[in-house]
């Protein structure tokens, strides 16, 4: 059936038994001959047999003429598959309208894998560690799982099957055969190059533990970002990743290193939880030891422990974004690190107000950095960053964490991660009576409710004060 500037046809995936090529609209099963009451084929006035489309075979497609591509070759994209002729007609009309309005024509031959390669090449602003994680997601999951599909064909079901297969890595139920999708993912992991963990240590990807729900969320965010860009550049009409249901990520609430937990840790070596928080006394001991040792990055650790900056933020903040003499603030313009709730939003871009101690420490550090610059001479790298290596280059974030761990060990304190200094800052702000909304804004959380839900139960002093206040407000005849 012909439409203005387009054609509506039925097609199928049947193949020629001799050549193996798809028959497309030439499959004999697509058409049914019309017969009269005697069972004889009906013929038209021209003597040709009359036929109708077979409702039980094939799907509807639309095709139209598009402007030539970059190579100058003629283009006739297909739209489909559609369940009905009316749906194909509407798709054709929409495409022709977009074409008249100057919209680009989706490349029906572009595979998802080829598109991901194009997309990652354009991510020039990512820092190396983030780019490395994006490439790993593409090479280990996106391309082996769905890379063979046409970009325009990728849908919610494909993504759902991909995430299900990712969840079965090192986690396949006993007696269940791996799906074709899982086989492709496992093959990609077996061929992947070894990854860097620590200086001088390299290990492969053959880990025995299943991938966590939070890891699947991170993979999803990368693929969703790529598909979102495809929508913006009009390669596809919608982002199928927006409607995929993901596994629930369990909330890891911080636990305080109480005296009982410390005693048990010293006895067994076991850490009660993944996210641990020091008491104000423990945090103070850490800062005292760092200062006594003459730790070069002492002011960085003090700033993090009191103002709750993320590692990427404190390593990436620039002198030009500081105002130490008037407003007493640091402007944090961007961060590529995710928070514990797996979210990062515009709230991450914020101005952090500094206290007198942090201002004094930052001014002292600036003087130290100037002396290092003079000593380095022509070898100095002018990055403009507040915290740098001795030659002015950017600090390696892993080094900041490694130095932190060394100080913790020297102080004989119960272990926490460097990121947990951020949680220490939040809990101490609450102990000091800072309003929860101010705490949330200082940390740059996307949601106030997340701050309240995470930290309300962390600080015993706050909970005890609330309990005492509740009992005290009730009038009684006899003093209890």
From TrEMBL:
Instruction: Tell me where in this chain the AP2/ERF domain is found.
Output: 36-113
Q: One matching Pfam family, short form?
A: Phage_integrase
Keyword annotations from UniProtKB, A to Z: DNA recombination, DNA-binding, Transcription, Transcription regulation
UniProt-listed CDD domains: INT_ICEBs1_C_like
Start and end residues of each Tyr recombinase domain: 273-468
The entry sums up its family as follows: Belongs to the 'phage' integrase family.
Q: What is this protein called?
A: Tyrosine-type recombinase/integrase
* Organism of derivation: Streptosporangium algeriense
Organism placement in taxonomy: Bacteria, Bacillati, Actinomycetota, Actinomycetes, Streptosporangiales
């Amino acid at each position: 059936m012909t439409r203005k500037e387009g054609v509506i046809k039925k097609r199928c995936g049947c193949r020629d038994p001799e050549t193996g090529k798809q028959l497309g609209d030439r499959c004999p099963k697509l058409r049914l001959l019309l017969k009269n009451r005697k069972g004889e084929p009906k013929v038209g006035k021209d003597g040709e047999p009359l036929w109708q489309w077979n409702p039980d075979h094939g799907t509807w497609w639309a095709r139209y003429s598009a402007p030539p591509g970059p190579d100058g070759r003629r283009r006739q994209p297909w739209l489909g598959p559609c369940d009905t002729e009316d749906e194909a007609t509407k798709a054709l009309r929409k495409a022709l309208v977009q074409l008249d309005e100057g919209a680009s024509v989706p490349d029906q031959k572009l595979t998802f894998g080829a598109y991901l390669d194009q997309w990652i090449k354009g991510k020039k602003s990512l820092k190396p560690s983030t780019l490395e994680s994006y490439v790993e997601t593409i090479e280990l999951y996106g391309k082996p799982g769905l890379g063979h599909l046409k970009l325009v064909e990728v849908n919610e079901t494909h993504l759902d099957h991909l995430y299900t297969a990712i969840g079965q890595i090192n986690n396949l139920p006993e007696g269940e055969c791996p799906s074709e999708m899982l086989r492709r993912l496992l093959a990609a992991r077996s061929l992947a190059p070894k990854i860097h963990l620590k200086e001088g240590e390299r290990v492969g990807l053959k880990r025995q533990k299943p991938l966590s729900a939070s890891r699947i969320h991170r993979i999803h965010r990368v693929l969703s970002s790529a598909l979102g860009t495809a929508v913006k550049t009009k390669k596809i009409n919608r982002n199928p990743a927006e409607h995929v249901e993901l596994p629930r990520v369990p909330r890891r609430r911080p636990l305080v290193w109480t005296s009982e937990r410390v005693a048990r840790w010293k006895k067994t070596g076991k850490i009660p939880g993944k996210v641990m928080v020091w008491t104000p006394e423990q945090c103070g001991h850490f800062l005292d030891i760092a200062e006594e040792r003459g730790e070069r990055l002492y002011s960085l650790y003090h700033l993090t422990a009191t103002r709750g900056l993320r590692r990427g933020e404190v390593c990436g903040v620039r002198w030009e974004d500081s105002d130490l003499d008037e407003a007493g603030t640091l402007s944090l313009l961007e961060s590529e690190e995710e928070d514990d709730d797996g979210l990062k939003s515009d709230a991450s871009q914020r101005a952090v107000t500094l206290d007198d101690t942090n201002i004094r420490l930052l001014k002292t550090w600036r003087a130290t950095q100037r002396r290092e610059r003079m000593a380095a001479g022509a070898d100095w790298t002018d990055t403009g960053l507040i915290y740098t290596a001795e030659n002015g280059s950017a600090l390696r974030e892993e080094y900041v964490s490694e130095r932190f761990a060394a100080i913790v060990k020297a102080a004989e304190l119960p272990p926490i991660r460097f990121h947990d200094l951020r949680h220490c800052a939040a809990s101490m702000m609450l102990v000091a009576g800072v309003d929860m909304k101010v705490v949330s804004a200082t940390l740059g959380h996307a949601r106030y409710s997340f701050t309240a839900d995470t930290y309300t139960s962390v600080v015993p002093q706050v909970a005890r004060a609330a309990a005492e206040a509740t009992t005290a407000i009730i009038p009684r005849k006899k003093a209890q």
